[in-house]
Design goal:
Layout (H helix, E strand, L loop, with lengths): L1 H20 L2 H41 L1 H21 L1
Amino acid sequence: MSNLRSVASDVQGVVDSLGRDAGSAGSDLRDKLKDIVSSTADARKQLERHTSHGAKVVDDVVQERPYECMGVAFAAGVLLGFFILRK
């Protein structure tokens, strides 16, 4: 998430400099970049909400059925180990 914020900050800096230095072509580019920054911020917020919700659901399932989750994790580890050692 911090990388996405960094990119948005960099683009915002470019937008600000275009606003001071450019003419009409720069104005069009500035408007497009503002739209991109806005949609990126919205996507980041939505991703944070979905990730948080997914983590809560997983936590609830693990709290309700800890032994089944340990069995699934063990089976996944065995399969992963089998495929790694098979090389």
